[in-house]
Amino acid sequence: MKKSLLAIAAMAAASGAFAQSSLQIDGILDAGVQRIDYKGTTVTGIGGNGSSTSQINFRGTEDLGGGLSARFRVETDWNVVSNKANTGTTAASGAAPVTGSTFGNGEIRVGVAGAFGALDLGSVNYNTLGTYGVGQPFGTAIGSGFRAVAINDAASTSSVRAENALKYVSPNFSGVTVSLYKSFKQTKAGTGVAADGNYSSTLGAYDQYGVQELGLNYAGGPLAASFSTLKQDNEEVGAGTAPDYTVNTLGVNYNFGTAKAFFLYQTVKGEGVRESKLMTLSGTYTLGATVLMAQVGSLNDDVQDKKDKMISFGADYNLSKRSAVYVRYESIDDKLNYAKNPGSIAGTAGETTRTRTAIGVRHSF
């Protein structure tokens, strides 16, 4: 259940400054027993994010009058099974600090909304992330094939957002919204840093590829559909050798009541490096407190002339509106070698299959 923290009534009455303001805190905790078989090497332990990304969000709005409002979001994706991952400490002397769970490492945005639509600035989520969620039921967790057969952009980590970005979303026209996204390219040519690295608070002090994205979204009745076309400009960024990429993603789902059908189609083109086509079919079936889900898909790359195949299953048993226990399974025959190595697990030569299994609990607040 989401919590709303309203201004103290006495203060609001005295000053009027907080009368139309609100702060909301919400989040997710997800952890369970996970087993990974990465191309012949197996590890089992307690892991996070088996069914959803663990996070805490601070969101705020202020009514400015005349239908205009200011708003913000600060998202932190945290590790629910490792203190060291959240505090930035390491066990090994002289080892680099862990920074993956530092405060504000997710979407950070501030903007305004009104009759014209909404405009946000910061490190804002791509529309492609939403498209991906429309096209399959596993989110970005186990079962989704995310950062394996499907991606959000062509960066090495398949980022779900870009730095120094702005995003405009139009008003809703009979269920249709349009999204325009721009992240400005930063070039410090000759530094040789990675195209998505060496960030700094000072403009011009780092390299970063540019991003442009157009999104079209529809939601009406039982049908939802989303299309995103994202282009990355790598010219003169970092070492200057990375190609420009175009990622087109289409997601559709139709709600039949207890059953829901999904379709995802994605093409990725990077000159001389990748020219792939992904298609998945998936569905869910709700039986009381239990939600069953399954997905099959394949990824073809014309450059390598190879194909990956994926199959995944899942089940949620909802203990309440906010808590659930879950099971997830994902298997990818990764002949293209796109499925990222989880952690430092070393695969066995000649093996191509990666499987992930999780049994866990998820709680939202």
Report on this structure.
The protein is mainly beta and 365 residues long. It has a single domain, classed as Porin (Beta Barrel). It has 3 helices and 18 strands. Strands 2-4-5-6-7-8-9-10-11-12-13-14-15-16-17-18 form a 16-stranded antiparallel beta barrel. The protein is globular and about 60 Å long.
Describe the protein's topology.
Elements: E1 3-6, H1 9-15, E2 21-38, E3 41-48, E4 55-65, E5 68-77, H2 83-87, E6 108-114, E7 117-123, H3 127-135, E8 165-169, E9 176-183, E10 210-220, E11 223-233, E12 245-255, E13 259-270, E14 274-287, E15 290-301, E16 306-318, E17 323-333, E18 353-364
Antiparallel strand pairs: 1-2, 2-3, 2-4, 2-18, 4-5, 5-6, 6-7, 7-8, 8-9, 9-10, 10-11, 11-12, 12-13, 13-14, 14-15, 15-16, 16-17, 17-18
